[in-house]
Structures are given as C-alpha cells and as structure tokens.
Amino acid sequence: MSTKFQKPATKYIHAGTLPDPSTGAIMTPIYQTSTYVQQAPGVNKGYEYARSQNPTRKALEDALAEIENGKFGLAFSSGVAATDAVIKLLNPGDEVIAANDMYGGTYRLFTKIFARFGIKFIYVDTTNPKNVQAAVTPNTKLIWIETPTNPLMNITDIHAVAKISREAKAILCVDNTFASPYLQNPLDLGADIVMHSSTKYLGGHSDVIQGALVMNDAALREQLYFIQKSCGAVPGPLDCFLVLRGIKTLHVRMKQHNENGYTIAHFLRNHPSVSKVYWCGFADHPNHDVAKLQMRGYGGMMSFTLKDDSVEAATKLLSSTKLFSLAESLGGVESLINHPASMTHASIPREERIKNGLTDGLIRLSVGIEDADDLVEDLKQAIG
User: Fold this and answer.
1) Is 188 a catalytic residue?
2) Catalytic residue among 62, 175, 192, 378
3) 51 included as an active-site residue
4) What is the pLDDT along the chain (384 residues), one digit of tens a residue?
5) Distance between CA 110 and CA 104 in Å, rounded?
6) Angle between the 237-247 and 55-67 helix axes, to the nearest 10 degrees?
7) Does residue 311 share a domain with residue 218?
8) Do 254 and 243 have their domain in common?
9) Which CATH number do you get for residue 123?
10) Contact call for residues 343 and 317 (beta carbons, < 8 A)
11) Is 296 an annotated catalytic residue?
12) Range of the domain at 109
C-alpha cells in the first residue's frame, strides 16, 4: 500500500498504488489471469485463484479504504452485489431498518429477494433519528441509510444514527454513492460500513459497473471477504483498473460537479415553470444544517418538478434536452437526465413512491462537468 496522505488531491492520485516492482510501471498492471502458479501445495506468493485474490483488485481495495479513511476495502461486480453481500451477514428473523427514500434497485433487492428468506425490512423516514430509534427492536441487526438519498436528496444525520446503531448492537451501513468520499466520509461519523456504486463518481466516466464496501473492523472484513469469495460477485481486473484510474481524478471532477451543481440548482429554482428543486445545498433544504456539518460540498445531484407536475410535461422535457442525455446512472463527466418513476425507481410500487414524495413528474439530474452556461441553455430551451 502507498504511504498515507492527508490532502485529498495527493491521496486520490496515490491511494493504493506504487510503481510495479518488476517493471517500474507507474500504473497498476491489469493482471488478466485466472490462476497463479504455486511453488508447492499451499506455498504461493499471496495469490491462488483470481476469484479470491487479484493484484489489480487488491490495489483498488487498498485505494478504496484509503480514500474513505477506512482500514479495509472490498470490491464487487456492482453496487447491488456489494449491497447483497451486506444483507448476507444476516439470518432469517433479523430485522433491517431502511430509509423510505432509496435507490429502486436496493428496494427491489430487499423486498423481492431477501424478504423471501425471512429477513424483515422496516422503512422509515431516517431524516429524523427519532423515527429510527422508534423502529429498533431486539431483532434489529442492520440499519441501512443513503445520505443524500436517491432521488429526493434527503439528508440523514449519520452521527446520530450511528449512536442508535451502537446502542442497538446493530451494524450501520451508509450508501455514500451520491456524496462520494470527496464530500463525505461516513466511517469518520460512526458508520460501520460504507457502500458505493463505484460505477458512479468513483469510476466517473460511465464505462464500468462496480461496487465497493469499506470498513474498519477486521472481523467484519473477514465475514464480508468470505461472502465475496464464496458467492463470487467480484469485478474483473480491467474494471478494477478503470476505477483506480477514475479515483485519481475524483477531486478535480468533484470540484466541477459542485460548481455546476450550484449553478444549475439556482437556475432551476429561479425558473418560472419549475415548482420545486431538491438540492441539499439550499439553506432551506430539510436538514441542510446536518449536510453542512457532515459534507464538504453539495455535489451535482438534484431533482425537480415542474409546476405542471404531470408525466406528459416531464416526458416532453426529458425528450427535449440536447446536452443532458436521457439515461439511467449518474456521476459521470457528462450530464444525464432521468425519470425516476419509470426508470431507476420503477420497481417501487407507485403508492409507496407517492407517499414518500416521489411523484410521477419528478425529474432527476446528474450534472456533469461541461460548461455550466451550456448546461443552463440546454435546460432553458428544454423547459421552454
């Protein structure tokens, strides 16, 4: 592992990597191999079979730990695979307290897969820690939160919920995908596990699918590594290389995401055809004071509704942008526009979505790092 650095720019560029000892290559090689030659049965150089270990993946996992101020990182084939591994820590009869606003794929995994195996999921508004406390029972083994949430940008006080999880002897896992390690480090605030869809800001270029877990507890790492190795949802070495490369520019990309996000959020708020903008950087955003304390910026993710909050009006806008590409995912250098009700959150029943504030007309933006003036002009012509 590389020397630990404190300043973000230096940390992200050097995290987890050293020049290759055999060649001096400054970039971690892509170890495209399935197995490793052993000197004798059980005698090897630390690598036996690529599902269990791979040097490119090891470099990435070290980098993931370093940028999240953790001790151990694990890379998975997707963010959902990383989430899947965390739930596999549980047993039938265990209970999970989860945020009522979350990524649709996480909700689908919880309700359609793991609920069938006797794990109970209790959904609460985690923006108020009292709701989390009230949901705790002797069977509570995991608290799962996103902050900011997908897609309503709700903010949860990680430190307050961590206190509740410790008292309940439950694991607290924080999905930190929207913030990225550049803006927020949940382990520093008391979380036990940080989850990332590395596909998003860590990769940053919309060219890889991957997930990550970071933790400090060695025993928890061994449990999760056993699941990773046994279930086999591991990323290939090329994917690990791409995320390693993405991490090296995380700081410069996030600075621009922050700046552009600020510009676009304020443009939308001041537009006469826009009803509401969900962006945690506004002083009147719910729990903005919490975001101000636990985040170092507010990023480029936001959602909004038009005054004509209908599917028809949203569809017209979604089909009219030139720079904002209509697509799922987020966190890439290019700007994306999304309709959660029919895309990323379609797996959540409509009545649940509406109850939680996710209307049929809600539009989500992942603001990229293009010129902000061009992005404003694109939205201006699309909104009309």
Assistant:
1) no
2) 175
3) yes
4) 445 777 889 999 999 888 888 899 999 999 999 999 999 998 998 899 999 999 999 999 999 999 999 999 999 999 999 999 999 999 999 999 999 999 999 999 999 999 999 999 999 999 999 999 999 999 999 999 999 999 999 999 999 999 999 999 999 999 999 999 999 999 999 999 999 999 999 999 999 999 999 999 999 999 999 999 999 999 999 999 999 999 999 999 999 999 999 999 999 999 999 999 999 999 999 999 999 999 999 999 999 999 998 999 999 999 999 999 999 999 999 999 999 988 878 888 888 888 877 889 999 999 999 999 999 999 999 998
5) 10
6) 30
7) no
8) no
9) 3.40.640.10
10) no
11) no
12) 8-247
Selecting among 11, 57, 88, 200, the annotated active-site residue is: 200
Q: What CATH number corresponds to the domain at position 267?
A: 3.90.1150.10
Which residues are registered as beta bridge partners of 174?
Answer: 145, 194
Judgement on whether residues 214 and 355 belong to the same structural domain of the protein: no
Q: How far is CA 341 from CA 39, 117, 271, 317, in A?
A: 56, 27, 23, 15
Asked if the structure places residue 285 within a domain, the reply is: yes
Catalytic residue among 20, 47, 51, 292: 51
Distance CA 249, CA 363 (A): 28
Nearest to 277 by CA among 382, 361, 285: 285
Report which of 297, 357, 294 is spatially closest to residue 161, judged by C-alpha positions.
Answer: 294
DSSP code, position 42: T
**Sheet hosting strand 363-366, strand order edge to edge:** 274-278, 301-306, 363-366, 336-338, 325-326
User: Which of 12, 31, 103, 278 is flagged as catalytic?
Assistant: 103
Between helix 79-87 and helix 218-231 the angle, nearest 10°, is 110
Count structural domains, the chain. 2
Mark whether 117 and 189 lie in a shared domain.
yes
Task: Decide which of 178, 213, 247 is a domain's last residue.
Answer: 247
**In 3D, which of 209, 119, 129 has the Cα closest to residue 172?**
129
| Residue 241 to residues 75, 139, 168, 181, 238, Cα–Cα distance (Å) | 12, 40, 39, 19, 5
Is position 284 annotated as part of the catalytic site?
A: no
187 lies in the same domain as 255: no
pTM of the model: 0.95
